[in-house]
Amino acid sequence: MTRMEAAGYALPPIINGCWQLSAGHRSDTPERDAAIDGLVRRAQAGLTAFDGADIYTGVEEMLGEVRDRYVAAGGAREDIRTHTKFVPDRDALTRVDRDYVTRIIDRSLSRLRVERLDLIQFHWWEYGTPGAVDAAGHLVDLQNAGKIGLIGTTNFNTIELAKLLDAGIPIVSNQVQYSLLDRRPEPSMVDLCRATGVRLFCYGSLAGGFLSDRYLGAKPPDAFGNRSLVKYRLIIDEFGGWQEYQRLLSVAAEVAAKHGVGIANVAARYAIDRPCVAAAIVGVRGSDHLEETLATLSFALDADDQARLDAAAPSRVPGDCFDLERVPDGPHQRIMKMNLNDKRSLP
Ligand SMILES: NC(=O)c1ccc[n+]([C@@H]2O[C@H](COP(=O)([O-])OP(=O)(O)OC[C@H]3O[C@@H](n4cnc5c(N)ncnc54)[C@H](OP(=O)(O)O)[C@@H]3O)[C@@H](O)[C@H]2O)c1
User: Fold this and answer.
1) Is the CB of 154 under 6 A from ligand 1?
2) Which long-range contacts (CB under 8 A, 24 or more apart) does 31-35 make?
3) Is residue 278 part of a domain?
4) Is residue 208 in a domain?
5) Which residue's CA is the nearest one to ligand 1's atom 34?
6) Residue 321: CB within 6 Å of ligand 1?
7) What is the residue range of 136's domain?
8) Angle of helix 242-259 relative to helix 227-239, nearest 10 degrees?
9) What's the number of domains the chain is made of?
């Protein structure tokens, strides 16, 4: 039994990812009210789980409104699963004490308009800076105080996740990049999950849209419309470059045609079906791509599809989960913002 099952926690296999709704993610942030309505429509269509973060500016507040509007329209409050994150600033890691943790969690509670967080996903920027186990221990204290339902992690690799588990932190999930392009969880994370009942949430399952019909046969773009594409273009390079990626897209397109769906559906379905995966997170801006996304739940990949996709998507991105992103001043780290929770925005 998985740790989520043991806790009686169920959720749909697709989670609405809300990073792209944060102010600062993109230049043409959609009109807020319309975006909230779009998220409510997703919940009404059965996609009732949302992924936000303390560092996605404005998103926790939006998700608080989504739950309220869903209930005002006749939905049950307990249908909605709102996952957020606790991402202490890199520059503050030596100062993450009980007070720091409590202030950020209290801020998330107030922004999300709830008395208890459904799931908090803990992130730690630098393993070399001690304190992760203590910080997670403060989360457990807040869980015991009723402010947190479940505790997960995000972007932990196998060794560091095992340290938290060994310390008795009741982690139920780890949110990691996992897709046709990026199979870093497979060499060891999956074994740890099998052994412990932790489950994975996959982000980047569509590589920001690169794993969709839009890019089939396309040349590499000269410019990027949003930060997700910048991020996943680097993963395409790690995968072997544009030509290898186009070969993968061709195979995914054939599998998609066989089932009468799009490449994005094949990519999301592939992620959902990976071992130890509880759900794929699909990035949204509102009700965009809603009908297409629902099609992911309308078909199954057979053994032949799996084998063809596995062969076209070899595991080429090196290292364990998020190891590349932790290389100081490496290309993956340079595009990240690691100090978004600073004192100015804390209550
Ligand atoms: N823990 C972490 O460090 C971390 C990092 C990254 C992301 N995340 C989480 O994971 C979520 C998803 O990641 P992401 O937004 O970067 O990437 P993603 O889910 O791989 O890609 C989302 C993009 O794919 C396109 N798309 C969606 N459905 C589609 C469909 N059916 N057909 C064609 N295109 C489709 C859309 O692009 P267009 O809008 O251009 O059409 C959408 O913006 C985030 O929102 C966030 O919640 C977490």
Assistant:
1) yes
2) 32/58, 32/62, 34/286, 35/62, 35/285, 35/286
3) yes
4) yes
5) 209
6) no
7) 3-341
8) 100
9) 1
Residue-by-residue pLDDT tens, the chain, 347 positions: 999 999 999 999 999 999 999 876 654 555 889 999 999 999 999 999 999 999 999 999 999 999 999 999 999 999 999 999 999 999 999 999 999 999 999 999 999 999 999 999 999 999 999 999 999 999 999 999 999 999 999 999 999 999 999 999 999 999 999 999 999 999 999 999 999 999 999 999 999 999 999 999 999 998 888 888 999 999 999 999 999 999 999 999 999 999 999 999 999 999 999 999 999 999 998 779 999 999 999 999 999 999 999 999 999 999 999 999 999 999 999 999 999 886 545 54
What global pTM score does this model have?
0.97
* Number of Cα atoms under 13 Å in the Cβ half of residue 18: 33
Nearest CA to ligand 1 atom 26: 209
CB distance 292 to ligand 1 below 6 Å: yes
In-domain check, residue 66: yes
Mutate to test the pocket of ligand 1, among 201, 206, 245, 287 (most ligand atoms within 8 A of CB): 206
- H helices of 126-262, in order, are 132-144, 158-166, 189-196, 227-239, 242-259
Residue whose tokens read 């049950």: 76
CB–CB of 34/286 below 8 Å? Answer: yes
Nearest CA to ligand 1 atom 37: 209
For residue 142, the CA-to-ligand 1 centroid distance in Å is 31
Residue 277 lies inside a defined structural domain of this protein: yes
Question: Is 296 in contact with 266 (CB distance < 8 Å)?
Answer: no
Rounded distance between C-alpha atoms, residue 187 and residue 313, angstroms: 15
